[in-house]
Design a protein that fits this description.
Blueprint: H1 3-28, H2 38-65, H3 70-77, H4 81-105, H5 115-147
């Protein structure tokens, strides 16, 4: 797998977080703005990340169950199989971390945001975007493999 394939989720997450920060400074003339409905956003993130983790675990199970096929032998020969399994693990771990950090976000009072709330929201935004990008990468690569 190429360097671009490996790192694009991190680049996208960094760009999204940086873009949000710059937009927030431009619109609100101050540090990153925490949305008033952040509790609903965190609850939705927990739900979506939980579904994504279950979906990815099922896909990884399918990939491991077809281990004795010509397709998997060819992937192992091209040294893609282990990278794909690492991508699955990274996406699942990132999803679990997204669930944990979203649950922690439920304890912040959005009506009186402090600088720690703003920093936490930016960290959460980075990891949420990272999780979404990693899930997309794994799903796209898996469907590409199955269609070839």
């Amino acid at each position: 797998m190429s360097i671009r394939e490996k790192w694009w989720p991190v680049w996208l997450s960094s760009a999204a977080t940086g873009g949000y920060t710059l937009t927030s400074y431009a619109v609100h003339r101050g540090p990153a703005h925490v949305p008033a409905n952040s509790h609903e956003i965190f609850i939705a993130a927990i739900t979506v990340a939980g579904i994504a983790v279950a979906f990815l675990a099922a896909l990884e199970g399918i990939l491991l169950s077809i281990r004795e096929t010509r397709l998997i032998a060819r992937l192992q020969e091209l040294e893609i199989y282990n990278a794909l399994l690492r991508y699955f693990s990274s996406a699942i771990n990132s999803g679990m971390f997204c669930i944990v950090i979203s649950a922690a976000g439920l304890f912040f009072n959005a009506s009186a945001p402090q600088i720690t709330h703003r920093v936490f929201f930016l960290v959460w935004l980075f990891f949420s975007t990272l999780t979404a990008a990693m899930c997309f990468r794994v799903t796209r690569l898996f469907s590409k493999i199955l269609h070839d």
